Amino acid sequence: SIKGNVYWITGLSGAGKTSIGKLFFEKIKQEEPNTIFLDGDELRLIFNESPHSRWKVDLPYLTYIANFVIY
C-alpha cells in the first residue's frame, strides 16, 4: 500500500502561504524526492476559475485532488 502525506498551509490572503509553501516543499523534496507542490491559485487557474474567486474551488474539492495525487 502506498502512503503519503498532505500538508495544508492556511492563512489570510497575502500572508505568504505560497512563499512558505515553496520553501517547505524544497526542504521536504530533499528527503522525499517523490513530492509535489499544489498551490491554490494555480489550481484555480487550471480549473478556469479566477485566482480571486477563492470559494469556488473549495476544501472538499482540493481534498479530493490531494487524495487522488497520493494514491
What do these coordinates show?
- By secondary structure, this protein is an all-alpha fold.
- It is built from three helices and no strands.
- The chain has helices at 17-31, 40-46, 59-70.
- The protein is globular, with a radius of gyration of 13 Å.
- The mean pLDDT is 79.
Principal-axes geometry comes out as: globular
Helical content band: 40-55%
What is the CA-based Rg, rounded?
13 Å
Output mean pLDDT: 79
Q: What count of helical segments does DSSP give? A: 3
Structural class: mainly alpha
Number of strands: 0
Q: Strand count, sense and closure of the main sheet?
A: none
Q: Which residue ranges are poorly predicted, with pLDDT under 50 across at least 5 consecutive positions? A: none
> H/E element string?
HHH
Strand content: under 5%
Keywords:
71 residues; mainly alpha; 3 helices; 0% strand; globular
Fold blueprint:
Layout: H1 17-31, H2 40-46, H3 59-70
